[in-house]
């Protein structure tokens, strides 16, 4: 069973990105398989993990909006056992695009990812992720239910 960790605060500049990237790296170095999910349109954790924000073919935006299979959007990092579901600036418009659709809890979708298709060997994972700082509803869609 995967363990999901959400790092959230509506205020910016409180260390959400730093905490998430460091937790991800520490879990991976401790031998845990980790999927770090970047839900911030700025994509600072994506670049913080050494991935060019524009390099991945797909991002969390494509998973949420374009029905791309989550496993297709997962990219390996330079840290063994640590994969990333990256973000990019298009994610900033996702909330508007999701209006009128079915209710969505992002963490529920993440927890059901088909790990057999991910870059690392499948096994139970730690999944740190965080929503962006904002007053909109996207941060609240990230919390596990």
Key terms for this structure?
single chain; 145 residues; alpha/beta; five-stranded mixed beta sheet; globular
Describe the structure.
- It is built from seven helices and five strands; from the N terminus they run βαβαααββααβα.
- It is an alpha/beta fold and 145 residues long.
- Strand 3 and strand 4 (82-85) form a beta hairpin.
Short structural summary:
The chain has 145 residues and is α/β, with parallel strands linked by helices. It has seven helices and five strands; from the N terminus they run E-H-E-H-H-H-E-E-H-H-E-H. It has a five-stranded mixed β-sheet.
Write the layout of secondary structure elements.
Layout: E1 3-6, H1 16-29, E2 33-38, H2 44-48, H3 60-65, H4 70-73, E3 74-76, E4 82-85, H5 94-98, H6 106-111, E5 125-130, H7 138-141
Parallel strand pairs: 1-5, 2-4, 2-5
Antiparallel strand pairs: 3-4
């Amino acid at each position: 069973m995967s363990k999901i960790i959400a790092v959230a605060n509506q205020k910016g500049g409180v260390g959400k990105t730093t905490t998430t990237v460091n937790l991800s790296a520490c879990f991976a170095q401790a031998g845990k398989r980790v999927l770090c999910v970047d839900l911030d349109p700025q994509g600072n954790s994506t670049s913080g993990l050494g991935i060019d924000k524009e390099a991945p073919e797909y991002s969390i935006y494509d998973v949420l909006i374009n029905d791309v299979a989550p496993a297709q959007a997962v990219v390996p990092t330079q840290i063994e056992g640590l994969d990333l579901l990256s973000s990019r600036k298009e994610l900033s418009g996702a909330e508007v695009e999701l209006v009128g659709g079915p209710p969505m809890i992002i963490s529920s979708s993440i927890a059901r990812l088909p790990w057999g298709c991910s870059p690392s060997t499948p096994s139970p994972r730690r999944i740190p992720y965080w929503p962006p700082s904002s007053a909109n509803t996207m941060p609240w869609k990230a919390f596990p239910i």
